[in-house]
# Entry
Amino acid sequence: MQQSNKFWNASIEQLKQGYVEEKDTFACLLCEKQIEKGQIYVDKDKYYEAERYMQMHIEHAHESVFHSLMQMNKKLTGLTEHQNKLLRLFYDGKNDTEIKQEMGVGSNSTIRNHRFSLKEKERQAKIFLVMMELLHEKDQHAPQFVEVHKTATMLDDRYNITKKEQEDVLKKYLVDGQLKRFPRKEKFKLIILSEIIQKFKVDKSYIEKEVNEILKTFYVDYVTLRRYLIEYGFLDRKDDGSQYWVKT
# Structure
């Protein structure tokens, strides 16, 4: 997805602020909402310039960049459930005694040990980033991989997709925008679904009929497409199926 590419290509500073500045807009990296530059925006009878309005959008729609990142798949964050909960409590300003009580651990020293382990993980991450940057400068044979969408429900070899594979699969299965048949291979399904989701707007809610109409333009078995878009984390919906939206 285009959204995912912007997210993964952003610098650390851009990720921390949650948006990127483009030629004519500010784009949210968490949901890719676009705020046009040079416009004045109104919220509760107050007026805001574009960048401040984008900052308010992140606060209102996502609570914070931190909270949004913590909701990502654990295979993307590299955090265990336990580490995720600890980081949330640290971020909320809890002291070691409060955390000890909430986590149900034996002593404050246990919490300090967790803090030390997370600091060690941070150091390792910095070194690994530097090594990968140096590798990119030398490795001329590395294939280009398709970025994994942030809301992927499972991360395994199915996501090991190169740009060349993506192009070949789209050429094979999509003819004039029509899906000849829905592939059986899981990796190929992901490629097709990643293409189809581009037809949905990120900041819009759809009723089921609207979803079906979009999917029918691709393939007669729109029910199968809808099911897999939800299963693979591209679309989400209300329990009663009354509303659908792009998962961000």
Residues 2-69 form one domain.
